[in-house]
Specification:
The protein has helices spanning 2-10, 61-73, 198-212, 229-232, 237-245, 332-339, 346-358, and strands spanning 16-17, 25-26, 31-33, 39-48, 88-97, 106-113, 124-131, 137-144, 146-153, 158-175, 188-193, 217-221, 224-228, 248-249, 256-260, 265-268, 273-274, 277-279, 284-290, 293-295, 306-308, 311-317, 324-326, 362-363, 365-368. It has 369 residues and is of the alpha+beta class. A six-stranded antiparallel barrel has the order 4-5-6-10-8-7. Helix 1 packs across helix 6. Residues 1-22 form the signal peptide. Belongs to the FlgI family.
Length: 369
C-alpha cells in the first residue's frame, strides 16, 4: 500500500499492461520457415469508369500515355489525337504472391492513385501485369475497385471521408507464373525467429529434439534453429513441418516499453522493473492578456487618436507534490495500481518515463514511435 500511495502522489496514468504469466505459443507463430515466404508484386495500370473524378491529364501526362498504349494494343489508332477524359486515373497495383502459389490461383490486390484523381469509387482496373523484383510477370490483375472512403462536393464546399484514392480488389489478380522452389528436396530447414532471443531459440531446439526423440535440431544463433529433415524420419519436409509448427513453448521476451507519441498510447511488458528513484512533476501555466487602450487627443488640438498597447503577462505554477520516491524493484503490477488511481494525460506519463529512462532507473528497452 505504501508503494501505491507514493505513485498516486505523482498523479500518473497508465493505459495498457500485458499479463504477467507466461503463455505457451505455437512454434509456427514464433518463426518463419526458410524459403516459405511470399513475394511482393507491383504493376502500373489504369482505372476507368470514374464519375469525373479521374486525373487531370494536363497535370498527369503519364495517364494519357498509358491510355494511348492500351488503346493501341486493342487496335484503336490514337496517334496525333488529343483527348481529355476525366473518368480515368493512373494507379499503382501492389500484391503479395503467397508461398507455393500455383498458376490459376487468385490473390488480393491494392490499387492506389498516383496522379491527381479525386476518387477511385466505382472504377474498374484494366488488365495490369504484376512484376516481381526479377522483372518477370507473375500475375495479372483486373476487376472493380472497392475504395475505402467517400467524397461529395458542391460549387462552394466539399467533404471527404476516408481515403477514396486507394482501394482493394479481392481476388483481383490471377497467378500466371509459379516461383521455382523445390521444397520437397530440402535436407535441412532453418527456422528464423521473428524476435531473436537465445533463450527462446534454445527452448525451440529442446522441444524439437524431445518430440523427434533425437538430435535433429541445432541452435545456430539467437535467431536461427536448424532442423535436419533426414534425421526426423519424416517422409518429406512437409510432413516434418506438420509436427514442428504445432509444438508449443514458452517464449522469452525482453522487457520493453513502447510509446506512441501521436496517440499517447503506452504499452509495458510484464518484466519491466524500476529501480529506486525519486520523481517530481510540476506544471507551469503562462498567461498573456492584451488590453489595448485608445488615447484621445486634447480638444481643439491637431493630435490624432492613438491606440496604446497594454499587456499583462503572468506565470503560475500549479501546486504539486514534492519529490516522491519509488522503491527499488517495483514491478509493473505494483506500478499500475498507483498509476490508474488518478487520471493524468498520458503524454505527461511519456515525459516521466523518458526521464526515468534517462536516469538509468527504467530497466527495459524504451521504444518511441
Amino acid at each position: 500500500m505504501k508503494t501505491v500511495m507514493k505513485w498516486v502522489a505523482l498523479g500518473i496514468s497508465l493505459l495498457i499492461s500485458l499479463p504477467a504469466q507466461a503463455q505457451s505459443i505455437r512454434i509456427k507463430d514464433l518463426v518463419e520457415f526458410d524459403g516459405v515466404r511470399g513475394n511482393d508484386l507491383v504493376g502500373y495500370g489504369l482505372v476507368v469508369g470514374l464519375n469525373g473524378t479521374g486525373d487531370g491529364l494536363r497535370n498527369a501526362p503519364f495517364t494519357e500515355e498509358i491510355m494511348s498504349n492500351i488503346l493501341e494494343r486493342l487496335g484503336v489508332n490514337v496517334s496525333g489525337e488529343q483527348f481529355r477524359p476525366k473518368n480515368v486515373a493512373a494507379v499503382f497495383v501492389t500484391s503479395v504472391l503467397p508461398p507455393f502459389a500455383r498458376a490459376g490461383g487468385q490473390v488480393d490486390v491494392t490499387v492506389s492513385a498516383i496522379g491527381d484523381a479525386k476518387s477511385l469509387l466505382g472504377g474498374t482496373l484494366v488488365m495490369t501485369p504484376l512484376n516481381a523484383a526479377d522483372g518477370e510477370i507473375y500475375a495479372v490483375a483486373q476487376g472493380t475497385v472497392i475504395a475505402g472512403g467517400a467524397s461529395a462536393e458542391g460549387e462552394a464546399a466539399a467533404v471527404i471521408q476516408g481515403v477514396p484514392t486507394s482501394g482493394v480488389i479481392p481476388s483481383g489478380a490471377r497467378v500466371e507464373r509459379e516461383v521455382d522452389f523445390d521444397f520437397s528436396s530440402l535436407s535441412t530447414l532453418r527456422l528464423a525467429l521473428r524476435e531473436p532471443d537465445f533463450t527462446t531459440a534454445a527452448r525451440i531446439e529442446t522441444a524439437l529434439n524431445n518430440n523427434f526423440r533425437g538430435s535433429v535440431a541445432r541452435m545456430l544463433d539467437s535467431g536461427t534453429v536448424e532442423l535436419n529433415i533426414e534425421r526426423t524420419g519424416a517422409s518429406s519436409p512437409a510432413h516434418a513441418l506438420v509436427r514442428v509448427e504445432n509444438l508449443v513453448i514458452e517464449p522469452e521476451r525482453r522487457a520493453r516499453v513502447v510509446v506512441d507519441q501521436r496517440s499517447g498510447t503506452i504499452v509495458m511488458g510484464s518484466d519491466v522493473r524500476i529501480s529506486r528513484v525519486a520523481v517530481s512533476q510540476g506544471n507551469l501555466t503562462l498567461r498573456i492578456a492584451e488590453q489595448p487602450v485608445a488615447v484621445q487627443p486634447s480638444p481643439f488640438s491637431d493630435g490624432e487618436t492613438v491606440v496604446v498597447p497594454r499587456s499583462q503577462a503572468e506565470i503560475t505554477e500549479e501546486p504539486g507534490p514534492s519529490l516522491a520516491e519509488v522503491p527499488g524493484g517495483t514491478s509493473l503490477s505494483e506500478v499500475i495500481a498507483g498509476l490508474n488511481a488518478l487520471g493524468v494525460n498520458p503524454r505527461d506519463m511519456i515525459d516521466i518515463l523518458k526521464s526515468i529512462k534517462a536516469a538509468g532507473a527504467l530497466h527495459a528497452e524504451f521504444v518511441v514511435r
